[in-house]
Write a structure and sequence with these properties.
The protein has 254 residues and is mainly alpha-helical. The protein contains ten helices and four strands; from the N terminus they run ααααααββααββαα. The chain has one domain (6-103, 164-252): Up-down Bundle (Rhomboid-like fold), CATH 1.20.1540.
């Protein structure tokens, strides 16, 4: 592996600063910098960028930064700083966009279920703002019997679950790497068998699609933003496909 590039070093540093700083600001950091559902009163326009530097815990930031360290410098050396940064942030924005889109689908379907059950918009707002967060895994909320628990938890979950992490941007890097270096052998931890990048990263993408569609977590915890992973990978692939195609077109006429 070559020397770590300056851009990757800066990205690693910013992520670590945000991670350490969030402990001093506590919940205030999440309110300000995580990406909230746009209908939530905590939503701010800058969160579209800042959420990429927020993480939900040490394991979360460790694996994201490890992948950035392993693949980021190789990709930057190939693309150059400008294109690397464009891909990184475009993938992060694409990830946020796709995740928000499907969050809206989930929120609106639950909201409609409330209306069909006879709940008024005022009652729905009471449910949303009457939530009491006891811990990270335990909440108290008002249940309207005619609606049911499933739709109530879906409504509350989409409204009060902020998005954090660089995973979308990292998936963009992984997709681009697999496109440029499809046959490079990669190794999984504890499995000493080389797997070509196109198969390993491709399988990771397929599992993310499966989890996003079925709601069954395969890789990561239940609250993993699988649509964000998919969005980041798609944008990463589109960027590198366009650049490679453009490079071929230029070389063809040289």
């Amino acid at each position: 592996m070559g020397r770590i590039t300056e851009t990757v070093k800066v990205l690693l540093t910013i992520n670590i600063i945000f991670f350490v700083g969030s402990y001093f600001l506590d919940n205030r950091a999440t309110e300000l910098f995580a990406l909230w559902f746009p209908e939530n009163e905590n939503f701010r326009f800058w969160q579209i960028i800042t959420h990429m530097f927020m993480h939900g815990g040490f394991i979360h930031i460790f694996f994201n930064m490890f992948l950035l360290y392993i693949f980021g410098s190789l990709l930057e050396n190939y693309l150059g700083q400008a294109r690397f940064l464009f891909l990184y942030f475009s993938a992060g924005l694409g990830a946020a966009g796709l995740q928000i889109l499907f969050t809206y689908f989930s929120f609106n379907s639950a909201y409609q279920a409330f209306l069909e059950a006879g709940a008024s918009p005022e009652q729905i707002q009471q449910v949303l703002h009457g939530v009491r967060f006891i811990s990270s895994t335990q909440i108290e909320y008002h249940l309207i019997p005619t609606v049911g628990e499933e739709n109530t938890l879906k409504l509350i979950g989409t409204y009060w679950s902020p998005m954090v992490g660089a995973s979308g941007a990292i998936f963009g890097i992984l997709a681009a790497f697999a496109f440029i270096y499809p046959n490079v052998p990669l190794y999984l931890m504890f499995i000493p068998i080389p797997i070509k990048a196109k198969w390993l990263i491709g399988a990771y993408f397929v599992l993310s699609v499966f989890s996003a569609v079925t709601g069954i977590p395969i890789l990561g915890p239940e609250n993993t933003a699988h649509w964000a992973h998919i969005g980041g990978a798609i944008i990463g692939f589109i960027c590198i496909y366009y650049w490679k195609k453009d490079q071929f077109r230029q070389n063809r006429w040289d």
